[in-house]
Amino acid sequence: MPTLELPTSLYSTDGSRAIDRLALAQDDLPEGALMERAGAAALAVLRQQFPAARRLLVCCGGGNNGGDGYVVARLAAEAGLAPVLLPVVPETALRGEAALMAAQTERVPRITLADLPAALNNTDLVVDALLGTGLASRVRADMATVIGSLNAGHRPVLSLDIPSGLNADTGAVMGLAVRASATITFICVKQGLLTGEGRDHCGQLWFDDLDVLPGDYTAVPVSCHRPSPALLSDWLPRRQRGGHKGRYGHVLVIGGDHGYGGAVIMAAQAAGRSGAGLVSVATRPEHCAPLLTRQPEMMVRGVEDTADLAPLLARASVVVIGPGLGQEKWGRTLLRAALDSALPLVVDADALNLLCDAVDFTPRANWVLTPHPGEAARLLDTDTASVQRDRFAALAALQAETGGTVLLKGVGTLIGSDGQGPALISYGNPGMGTGGMGDVLSGMIGGLLAQGLPPAAAATCGALAHALAGDRVAVAQGERGMLATDLLSHLPRILNP
């Protein structure tokens, strides 16, 4: 049955096709069986999420995606609904199972492209079965015309497998894509549905494995994994009764140039709330009093140069550098000192910008870099649009260039590390698009590193807990008006599973 609970394994287009082939070859399925199951699953979602919809406009392309649409139209008619078909690809051009399914819908009325505007005015719900997961180039003109009309028609849309026009591997829009109210994806979840522009175009995402056998999945490599909250207990076992502050690490947060004291305060608070035993802060002297007023548990030192910083580095076990660091001489000098240490690092914000422009670096295994798409573009000497067109490729390029672990922020945050497939964080909400969220995240990762988590695990655990905290705030007070510091009080509950 269709479910909103998504699997933790995500697949590329090639992986999805390989599972399809194995299912058809190994499971002794009759012709059209998977297509029939897909159509039935889609109709179940339609009836559940859109119970008042009776007049349906089913827009069908060619290939298997169009075939799924024809099954939905037939089953909807049999269920007493009133479907109308728009075959955008001539039915005479259909082949294989798609042709077979289209032939079984002779009693369902058809319209042409010329009828589309009027049909939309007389429709409760659109079923999008235009383009499937194989789209790798810009949507052609006839399909773009239909997609544009659907988006402008202000009718709810249920997309089958993927919103037409969305790249299943990258989450990029291939010129124009359907903005669905809901999407049901079949057999496996395609990685592009959960990152880039995928989330905005999918609407409510449903999943149905179409009863494919577990063995059909094991032979196909997973392209990306989606950590679930259940993993937090694996990363963060219950503490021993004899634990003490020295056992849980000492985080040094470096940042807060003139006028940017808030960022370093939030990062330090997040490190403490994430479980670090000790938290020190190296910042401009004028920020010491406000920080201690806000969080007296922190040890704060005003620093002007590397001579002031050296004793703090000597006592730390982890460094978080970047929040409010600025890009002037003070920030460059402190970053150079941090890079020259052998300590594990979390590099964020202005420290990333300095790596791009002013401070040489050597790739290292024991750091976590946390760029947003703009910072990633500068590190790769490209533009933000290029990063967003293929976030998985950008992540791989960043990780190859910098070593260690890279966390690429954005909708569907991605984490990459040597020898591990990427992780995708599917939690979080638009309310988190506000100043200071990145500072809280970098402090959290530092606090988790200090407790002994390896860099990849600390980054993944931190990003997951950060997103879950944002979701809890949204439930409690809504998305609009959320502040980064609203997350802090939720962290201990999330990180003590």
The rough form would be described as elongated
> Beta-strand level of the residues, as a percent range?
15-25%
**CATH topology description of the largest domain:** UDP-N-acetylmuramoyl-L-alanine:D-glutamate ligase
| CATH class category of the largest domain | Alpha Beta
Total number of beta strands: 18
- At the fourth CATH level, what is the homologous superfamily of the largest domain? Ribokinase
Total of DSSP H or I helical runs spanning 4+ residues? 20
Binding site for AMP: 409-413, 438
Protein name: Bifunctional NAD(P)H-hydrate repair enzyme
Catalytic activity: (6S)-NADHX + ADP = AMP + phosphate + NADH + H(+); (6S)-NADPHX + ADP = AMP + phosphate + NADPH + H(+); (6R)-NADHX = (6S)-NADHX; (6R)-NADPHX = (6S)-NADPHX
Family: Belongs to the NnrD/CARKD family.
Describe it.
Its EC number is 4.2.1.136, 5.1.99.6. K(+) binds at residues 65, 128, 164. Keywords: ATP-binding, Isomerase, Kinase, Lyase, Metal-binding, Multifunctional enzyme, NAD, NADP, Nucleotide-binding, Potassium, Transferase. It contains 20 helices and 18 strands. It is an alpha/beta fold and 497 residues long. The protein has 2 domains: 9-224, YjeF N-terminal domain (Rossmann fold, 3-Layer(aba) Sandwich); 229-494, UDP-N-acetylmuramoyl-L-alanine:D-glutamate ligase (3-Layer(aba) Sandwich). Strands 12-11-10-13-14-15-16-17-18 form a 9-stranded mixed beta sheet, with helices on both faces. Strands 3-2-4-5-6-8 form a 6-stranded parallel beta sheet. The protein has a 3-stranded mixed beta sheet with strand order 7-1-9. Strand 17 and strand 18 form a beta hairpin. Helix 12 packs parallel to helix 13. The relative contact order is 0.10. The model has no long low-confidence stretch (mean pLDDT 96).
